[in-house]
Design brief:
The protein is of the alpha+beta class and 258 residues long. Helices cover 27% and strands 26% of the residues. The chain contains 7 helices and 13 strands. The chain has a 7-stranded antiparallel beta sheet with strand order 1-11-6-13-4-3-2. The longest helix is centred in the first third of the chain and has 18 residues. The two termini are 30 Å apart.
């Protein structure tokens, strides 16, 4: 799947990203590219997923494959997704927004299925990354329409300008940490809802507070891909990150989620 060309002037989004902590690029993938991406996702889930490590795949109910909620590291197991992450216009955009070379860390698959009415709790991705200099970003690519009914993203503008907030364990599959004292009334009023059409890209800083409501649709999925890039200057506490992932995997395994 080619991602070598784009009509976007990436620098035009740098000011928005710097000021608000996020930027929205409408139609980042064309309708044709979205169709091809859906085909690759279907193939991956049918053919590659059965061979994946259990700790990288999360299910609401492991006995029901259709409840697959999250898949980690698509780029490590499929050339199509590696091509999206590396030497692509996604990477070029990450370099532009962070202002330095980047390291592609993960492509994640997310789905909010119509029969799982669970919200995404307020959090900052930097809490999971464990970086000494929290210079990183996440790109959220809509595969299906994300709106008020299916649970679009909600951003807290300017929250990236402050330190990471205190997080605690959430009990929510795929989002194990959340900001327990959010939202205050002022923060709730300041939230920005970001409906997205298939192919739209939402990019946010690792310290930007965001959340999403549950999927209330009786029939529509809300699938998305998440691209994570670290700035070259960011330093990861690999030991702490690995220890937390091991602890989380043990918890999810005991609950029958992986």
């Amino acid at each position: 799947m080619s991602t070598t060309t784009s009509a976007y002037n990436n620098s035009a989004y740098s000011d928005c990203f710097e000021q608000h902590g996020y930027a929205v690029l409408r139609g980042f993938l064309s309708a044709e590219e979205v169709v091809r991406l859906r085909h690759h996702l279907d193939r991956f889930i049918q053919e590659v997923l059965p061979e994946r490590r259990a700790v990288e795949v999360y299910y609401e109910d492991k006995s029901r494959p259709e409840t697959c909620k999250q898949i980690q590291h698509l780029e490590k197991h499929d050339g199509c997704f590696a091509g999206l992450m590396f030497n692509s216009r996604f990477e070029t955009l990450a370099v532009e927004l962070l202002g330095e070379p980047v390291r592609g860390k993960n492509i994640q698959y997310f789905n909010k299925s119509p029969d799982q009415n669970i919200s995404t709790p307020p959090h900052q991705d930097g809490q999971y990354f464990m970086l000494s200099a929290c210079r990183a970003l996440t790109m959220w690519l809509a595969v299906d329409a994300a709106d008020e009914e299916t649970g679009c993203l909600r951003m807290q503008p300017g929250s990236h300008k402050h330190a990471l907030r205190t997080h605690t364990r959430s009990g929510t599959l795929g989002f194990s940490q959340f900001i327990s004292d959010y939202p205050s009334d002022q923060e709730r009023l300041g939230e920005i809802a970001i409906p997205a059409a298939p192919g739209d890209l939402v990019v946010h800083h690792a310290k930007t507070i965001h959340r999403a409501d549950a999927n209330r649709s009786p029939e529509r999925n809300r699938r998305a891909l998440g691209f994570i890039y670290y700035a070259a200057s960011a330093r990861e506490d690999s030991a702490a990150h690995q220890a937390y992932q091991q602890e989380l995997a043990e918890d999810l395994s005991s609950q029958g989620k992986i």
